[in-house]
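Write out this protein's structure.
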Amino acid sequence: MFNLGKFRKKQVHMPRILTLANQKGGVGKTTTAINLGTALAAVEEDVLVVDLDPQGNASTGLGLDKSQRKNSTYDVMIGRKTLSDAIVETSIPRLHVAPSTLDLLGAELELSESARRTYRLKDAIAELIEQMPESIHDRNYSYILVDCPPSLNLLTINALAAADSVLVPLQCEFFALEGLSQLLRTVERVRNTLNPELDIHGIVLTMFDKRNNLSGQVADDVRAYLGDKVYKTVIPRNVRISEAPSYGKPALLYDHTCSGSQAYIRLASEIIQREKTLRAA
């Protein structure tokens, strides 16, 4: 098992809600949710991954087959179940998941005329937080990571309305900045209308190929555009990361020595340090 023992458990705080969003698919969003959650759990942070993507890849990648998804985020969004009802333990200590099913595809239509339709997830998380006891145990979450679908639909708007901050995985490719600009405009609209406290926690560059000049150029352009909002850690293109989901494991459990796993460990460290800075401000 990988060693992150140099980090210490923080004092108990209200959970930080980080939404992982990018309307473009295939950028490493779900992979980042899975492996960041695993890395945070390894340093004794209690983490909940909320799978809000109808594809349910975060649930599958954390080892949950469909038989284990008795209650899902679909049930939560339509008000049939509480978020607490949907939470399932994973094989990773301190890491839980609220799984998704394909039923979530119909949630947007079902919620179209519902009251507080953009705040369904926010309300569900608020109810969960109210249930969290004062003592430390395995559901006193310090981080809630929300994995969004690859679109700017009502599910993603719910995730942004519920979040403290947005974490944006960004693939190092030609159209990266164009897609990022669209997402930033959406975040600004949500901040102005639904969630005035929302901000960008950071941009994580994914699928970086050091042999490809384009990857380096995109990374330079994004850093020039967003400065310190871009994490120093870069996630490399790595075959072990790609293989891990087929075994129902995060890459950090499948092969903790590979370059991708080591990068996610560094990203978790960087996020923890950034959180300390934010809380001290």
